[in-house]
Amino acid sequence: MTKLRIFVDFIAEAEVMEILRQGTAGHELVFPKRPVASILAKAEPDPGLVDADVAFGQPDPNAVEQARGLKWIHISTSSITRYDHPEFRELVARRNIPVSNSARVYQESCAVHVLSFMLAQARKLPLALVTRSASGTPPWNALRTSVRTLRGETALILGYGAIGKQLVELLRPFEMKVIGFRRKSRGDEEVPVITAEKLAHTLSMADHVIDILPDSAETKHFFNAARFKLLKPGAVFYNIGRGATVEQQALADALGSGRLTAAWLDVTEPEPLPDDHPLRAAPNCFVTPHIAGGHVGESQTLVRHFLGNLQRFVRNEPLLDRVM
Amino acid sequence: MTKLRIFVDFIAEAEVMEILRQGTAGHELVFPKRPVASILAKAEPDPGLVDADVAFGQPDPNAVEQARGLKWIHISTSSITRYDHPEFRELVARRNIPVSNSARVYQESCAVHVLSFMLAQARKLPLALVTRSASGTPPWNALRTSVRTLRGETALILGYGAIGKQLVELLRPFEMKVIGFRRKSRGDEEVPVITAEKLAHTLSMADHVIDILPDSAETKHFFNAARFKLLKPGAVFYNIGRGATVEQQALADALGSGRLTAAWLDVTEPEPLPDDHPLRAAPNCFVTPHIAGGHVGESQTLVRHFLGNLQRFVRNEPLLDRVM
Question: At what angle do helices B298-314 and B14-23 cross, to 10 degrees?
Answer without folding.
Answer: 10
